[in-house]
Amino acid sequence: MAVEAQDPQKTDTTASSLTQEERERIASMSYEEARDQLIQAVQALEAGGLNLDQSMRQWELGEALAKRAQTLLDQVRAKLDAAQAQQQTSADTAGTQSNLE
Q1: Distance between CA atoms of residues 63 and 57, nearest Å
Q2: 22-50: per-residue pLDDT in tens?
């Protein structure tokens, strides 16, 4: 059984056509950039006409972009949750003696 050599451009142990540079670029994208490029990847897949390798590359690109966008949304949700919790704590003590001490 032959063992494939690890490609230093790949970031994980799964087969992927995305290079480390592409993954780093995606990791630094804003939500809007990731969303827009994800839309382009989906449109390319929906349009058809791609060979299997091109389709798989678009799929992998789409997965990475979707993960980046979701990570950013999760971060915003965590910040909103923390702000709401702090606001609730402030509201619970507003107008009480403990607020004046």
Answers
A1: 10
A2: 999 999 999 999 999 999 999 999 999 99
